[in-house]
Structures are given as structure tokens and as C-alpha cells.
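Reopening this one. Same input as before:
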Amino acid sequence: MSKVSIFAQKFKDKALEKSPEILIGMGITGFFTSMVLAIKATPKAMKLLEEEKNKKGRSLTAKEVIKTTWKCYIPAAVTGVASSACIIGADAVHTKRNAALAAAYSLSEATLKSYQSKVIETIGEKKEKIIEESVAKEKMDSNPIKPSTEVYVTGNGENLCYDSVSGRYFKSDIEKIRKAENYLNKQMRSFMYISLNEFYDEIGLPHISIGDDLGWNIDKDYIEIKYAAQIAENGQPCIVLDYLVAPRYDYRDLH
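Same output, byte for byte:
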């Protein structure tokens, strides 16, 4: 990839990262612009009202006042609406990012608590593999497959799989997933980071709303997936995907 392409990608990522601040700045600027436009439009509106009043020879009704002057305030109104949209957009981005933070925190906390509780239950009796399988089963059991559950067909295999991050069931193959994992880890050597949605692209799953806000950075660790074989509630063998390093919110900013 050329240096220009890498620079363009980094610029785009930085703009996305700062989008709430940019939108708020545009919104505030827009409101002040709207006020200035309204003030400038008032003399023209007053002149039109005076002309209409002289023409009719009487005072104007409220409806006539609006009909006479509304066009003068169109620029101010359009700017005001656009400014409101910027503020609302900034709030929406903040809400989405807060949801991503909450999801990342919950994922890390849940994983830690699961391992701690299972280690306490099995220490001195069973090996690490049994602990991992027990945790994987617990995660899958918290979101059991039902007749109404959507199972995504990725075209990459027929084995039932369960993604512990998004809580989705899908059909795939371990070798295909490992291939995607290796490919993205190589990509990280050039791009430094990979988003969760990019991983889902490679394994054939649709994006999730917070998938661009979570990801991995080469300075922290590579993507490393572990697999546990379980039996789903419907009796089918199921491969549970878990992550040794969970995708994190600040993956673009690590150094």
C-alpha cells in the first residue's frame, strides 16, 4: 500500500474519532450564523411589512405578517435546522461510543469473573482445558440456540459456531476462521490495527453497530482466538469462539 493511501486511511480514522467534536463545533457555529442571518433579515422584513401595510391601508393580521416575511428568514431557518442536526449527530455518536465502552467493559469483566469462579471450582482437580471448556459452555448457555434463533450462513463451512462477543450463531469451519485470523494479523503489520467488523467481514458475519469502535492493535497483541467444542441446546455440536485478547475501545490510540 502506498504512503498516500496509508495517510488517507489514518486521516479518515482520525476524523471519525473526532467526529463528535467536529459536529458540535459546526453546530455552535451554525447557531451563531443563524442568529446573524436572522438579524440581517429583519430590516428587509420590516420594509416588506410597511409596504404591505400601506398597500392594504390597515394593520396586518398575524397570518398576513407571516405570509409577507417568511421568505426573508429561510436562510436563517435552514442554518438553524442544520445546526440542530449536527448537535443531534454528535450526541448519537457519543451514545454509540458509550455503548461500545460498556460492551467492552462488560465483556472483560464477565470473562474475568467466569475464569475466576471456574478456577475456584476446579483448582487441583482439572486442567486448564477443562476450565476453558466450562467457561465456553457457560457463555453459550447464557444465550442458548432456539428455533427462533437466527443462524448466519457464511458459505465458509457447515459447522455450527458461536461467537462469544456478539452472541451470534453461524455456520463456518475452524480452518476458515483460522485463515481469517492469520490474514488480519498480517494486515495489522501494515495498518497497525484491525476493527471487530473487519474480522466479521473475513468470517462472513454481518457488521454490528459497535464493531467499528472495538478492535485490536498490534502494540497490544494480535488477534488470537481459542476454540471450545460444546453441544448446543438443540443437540448439535457447536464450536465456541473466544478471544485471548478481547477487542478494545481505544484500539486506534495505543502506542
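So the earlier flakiness isn't reproducible anymore. For the record, The helical segments are 3-17, 19-56, 62-69, 74-122, 128-141, 174-191, 196-203.
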